[in-house]
Amino acid sequence: MCTYATVKDSVDGSAKGPNGSWFHVTDVTVYFDHPVHAMAEHTLNIDFADPSKGPSARVALELTAESGRRLIAAIQEALASVPAELAV
């Protein structure tokens, strides 16, 4: 069953893409659907991209639901440990 639940947002960061080159990422798309590569029926898919640089300026993740929850918890824990003045 497909959920078609897709969330798009703006981000400001960098990602390492094809050939080990870094590029600026401006967009993130998060959705839960069938993966392309991961060995699971459904995955949490996260795409970081800079659409202005074409389709090769993209990094994609396919995580099981449990791995996605652990990633969220790890991000929250890391950000909570940073002094407020640095986490702007």
Could you characterize the architecture of this molecule?
The chain has 88 residues and is of the alpha+beta class. Helix content is 18%, strand content 41%. The chain has one helix and four strands, in the order E-E-E-E-H. The chain has a four-stranded antiparallel sheet with strand order 1-2-3-4.
- Kindly name the structural category: alpha+beta
Q: H/E element string?
A: EEEEH
Q: What is the strand arrangement across the widest sheet?
A: 1-2-3-4
Biggest sheet descriptor: 4 strands, antiparallel
Terminal CA distance reads 39 Å
Strand content: 35-45%
Let me know the number of strands: 4
Percentage of residues assigned to helices: 10-25%
Total helical segments: 1
Overall pLDDT score? 93
The geometry reads as globular
Gyration radius from CA atoms, angstroms: 14 Å
Stretches where pLDDT is under 50 for at least 5 consecutive residues are: none
